[in-house]
From TrEMBL, chain A:
Belongs to the FrhG family. This is NADH-quinone oxidoreductase subunit NuoB. Residues 29-58, 60-87 form the 4Fe-4S ferredoxin-type domain. SUPFAM superfamilies: 4Fe-4S ferredoxins, HydA/Nqo6-like. Its cofactor is [4Fe-4S] cluster. GO terms for molecular function: NADH dehydrogenase (quinone) (non-electrogenic) activity. Keywords: 4Fe-4S, Iron, Iron-sulfur, Metal-binding, Oxidoreductase. It comes from Anaeroselena agilis. The keyword Iron applies.
TrEMBL record, chain B:
This is NADH-quinone oxidoreductase subunit C. InterPro entries: ComplexI_49kDa-like (IPR052197), NADH_Q_OxRdtase_suD (IPR001135), NADH_quin_OxRdtase_su_C/D-like (IPR037232), NADH_UbQ_OxRdtase_30kDa_su (IPR001268), NADH_UbQ_OxRdtase_CS (IPR020396), Ni-dep_hyd_lsu (IPR001501), Ni-dep_hyd_lsu_Ni_BS (IPR018194), NiFe-Hase_large (IPR029014). Residues 7-126 form the NADH:ubiquinone oxidoreductase 30kDa subunit domain. Its main location: membrane. Its EC number is 1.6.5.9. Pfam families: Complex1_30kDa, Complex1_49kDa, NiFeSe_Hases. It is a peripheral membrane protein. GO terms for molecular function: NADH dehydrogenase (quinone) (non-electrogenic) activity. Residues 267-423, 441-505 form the NADH-quinone oxidoreductase subunit D domain. Keywords: NAD, Oxidoreductase, Transport. It is found in: Cell membrane.
Amino acid sequence: MLKILQKIMAVGTVTEAWDAGEAPERFRGRVAPAGGSCAACGACVAACPVGAIEADGDTVTVNQRACIFCGRCVERCERGLLTQTGDYKLAELGGQLLGEAVRAEIARTLGRSLHIRHLDVGSCNACDFELNQLLSPVYDLQQYGVDFVASPRHADLLMVTGVVTRNLTQALLMTYEATPSPRLVMAVGACAASGRTFGADNYAVRGGADALVPVDVYVPGCPPRPQALLYGILLALGRIEQA
Amino acid sequence: MMIKTFVVKAENLRAAANACASRSRHGLLAMFACDERISTGSYAIYCLFDGRKPDGLVTVKGLVPAEGPLEFPSLTPVIPAAAWYEREIFDMFGIKPTDHPELRPLVLHENWPSGLHPLRKDFDPAREVPEADKPFPMLHAHGEGVFEVPVGPIHAGIIEPGHFRFSQAGETILRLDAKLFFTHRGIEKAVEGLTPDEAFPMVERICGVCSVSHALSFSQALEGLTGTSIPERAKWIRVLTAELERLYNHVGDIGNLSAGMGFQVAVSNGARLKESLLRLNEAVTGNRYLRGMVVPGGVAMDVTGKLCREIGAALERFEPDFASLVGLMRENDAFLNRVDTTGIVPFAAARDLGVVGPAARASGVDWDMRRDKPYGGYGELDFAVPVRHSGDVAARLWVRVDEVPQTVRLIRQALERLGAAGPELAAAVPPAPAWGAGAGWSESARGANLHWLMMDDDNRIWRYFVRSASYPNWPALTVAAPGNIIPDFPLINKSFELCYACLDR
Ligand code: SF4
Ligand code: SF4
């Protein structure tokens, strides 16, 4: 017992402000087209393993929801026109949260106390590991009045990770049904947000979360770092503004 | 890498495989089918065994002619480790292992129509597959007062999906059966027809927390097949990255085990230490799960002198912190009471099921691919392989605890070697020889991940088979659980650290 107390004293408080853990130099965040003249060669489009890049003449756009942040497009653009920024605050609102009135209502009812049910519908486990890290003392999710619960019946928000597999379709639909309204759905990571990580024509995969249930928040990343998840949660609750 | 192949007729497969198994030290390593109708007019059933040479494998290949009958004698009655592989072959190819003691679906669930086999070459991945509602038989125990407890696929915590069926007499578990492969993402089919470069991001995403190990096994299979030798610098950066992966996994798993019994101080400290390691990973590779570093031919990024010093300093801080966390467990009688003699896997069961990694080493199976089938730079490095014999939750825990200082040693040695290595990071990988097959392996935090690759005549993937560490380890859980009480199940389960994403693919 004494040793336990000593350890607690020695470690002290390790909890950080939600976005204090800055992205290191090598972190691969949002891909941004830098200025300059594009040769319209299509190298970036061909390089992208998930079809996240669309080129219209010399204008390149990146679908953040699908991007797995591999950096191949940046590496393979011969003119060096793409850069990978350290930006990870990429969460986007959708569904019910697009309406101002509903958003305000959700902020009012759930803003101070949100219960989350996690649902793995076909993830590689890295997104799930990051959700677990939110409970570590470094992030201490509970300090925001937010916590994970054991049953969908107690949940306000479903955090969905992974591409929806054929074998988990029923679990997703039943869990969604079991969650009382008003309910929110967050698609966590490229898999749930786009469903493209394992190819477009795949007998075992149905697509992203929104192929089956309405999604209210998309959090890009592969996986999204814990700060990106917190950004998504706080944004959905109206506790912070869009970065 | 040397693969010695014996080709036999399907009807002789059992005898040939059994002869190999009795001569090999570790029994059957993997078993899968391949649609080779285009070249030989047959399907092939491959059985992989350990070879005599450290880098060698022995393969028995049974030919099943396409015109039928599509069957072969099941190996399971003589080699229990074959049970799941054969069920998977029946699901994915429709080739029947005759006399299999419990031939029921494994990968494809009740929603999948009978008679469709997705890994056959004539199965078009773009086709619509109608919904089915077949029965999915599960195993039970019978007797007066015996009842069943179904759990999952969705669990109470943040964990991966699996469905467990406990047959109970009161608190005591009599039998455990499971329905798995919920996160089956069809990865082996999805990479077919792609070049290795195109396939690689999916390989890295088979599993998030064994990402490096899968990247390594795939790369080594391809490098062996194409005769590519990787630069010295890449060799040490690979060891460094692979050991960083083991480190954060072991530390997280050690802390997490305490969650199964509500020992919160250990859980929190484990999570805090793991967080510091994940941040180190992000600084070194740009990704907290170390993605983007290992690539076929070498590595994608250098580990600069500055990063080397950062890693060295992080290890200095880590060691005493970790030691005091372990101290809290070692001296806590309530904790020890729960883990000692709980969930035992006897040596013979571990050996017969082909269990790997810490789970095997905790039951006295002294086997580690890094030492016994060395790859990359491991043959040149100095490290010990801790082994325990009690086969219980405690043994699996202490094996991990004892491996941590060895991993720290390996990282330090890799950093040292890096200092003297030239600047080159990756070698070009030439196209693979047409219809060549190769294997690659690496020892992840959960045990050996074995990959097998066959390339077509256009440098595209024809067949890719991934035998993850959790594949042979899962059945060991059904040995460990019976006789224990249900409240100990989470503890037993966690002590294996089975990974469903790896298993399900
Ligand atoms: S970073 Fe990778 S996934 Fe994202 S757009 Fe570029 S190539 Fe595509
Ligand atoms: S988004 Fe990336 S990290 Fe998350 S489940 Fe998919 S592959 Fe894994």
